[in-house]
Design a protein that fits this description.
Structural class: mainly alpha
Oligomer: single chain
Bound molecules: zinc ion
Strand order of the largest sheet: 1-2
Largest sheet: 2 strands, antiparallel
Order of helices and strands: HHHHHEEH
């Protein structure tokens, strides 16, 4: 069975255009490997990106307007960590947060708050990289 469903191809195009590495993209697409990501991107005609000479992808004409908007500043690792520690847990429609009882597979399991206090919760965002969402993965793995 091919991992390249329309959905995964769309995800690949999106993550690739955002400049994520093939390794990171592979982590977000079940069944894909770094090599299969690179091969698929090549077959799709996505802009070539060597990890050693990573350059911003050239905007395609139809997306030029969106891409030419000012890029958000790149946070330093420390600034990013400070940002993420302030990230509030995701709230469900009913206002509740993800707890030991409600956390599910596919949700970010980054702990927020003091387990001994009453306000402990899990992040609860879509887990993209392992058990964590993209922001928490960056803090946890770097
Ligand atoms: Zn998270």
């Amino acid at each position: 069975m091919s991992v390249w469903t329309d959905e995964n191809v769309a995800l690949l195009r999106k993550l690739w255009s955002e400049g994520h590495s093939a390794r990171d993209i592979a982590a977000c697409i079940p069944g894909a490997t770094r090599n299969s990501i690179i091969g698929k991107a090549y077959r799709l005609g996505l802009p070539d990106r060597s990890p050693l000479t990573r350059v911003a992808p050239r905007p395609k004409p139809e997306t030029a307007a969106r891409v030419s908007a000012p890029r958000p500043p790149r946070f330093s690792a420390v600034a990013h960590a400070a940002l993420v520690t302030r990230l509030a847990p995701l709230r469900f429609a009913d206002g509740a947060v993800a707890t030991v009882l409600t956390i599910r597979d596919g949700m970010c399991k980054f702990p927020i708050g003091d387990p001994k206090a009453g306000d402990f919760a899990y992040c609860g965002r879509d887990a993209c990289r392992g058990s964590y969402c993209d922001d928490h993965a960056r803090v946890s793995y770097e």
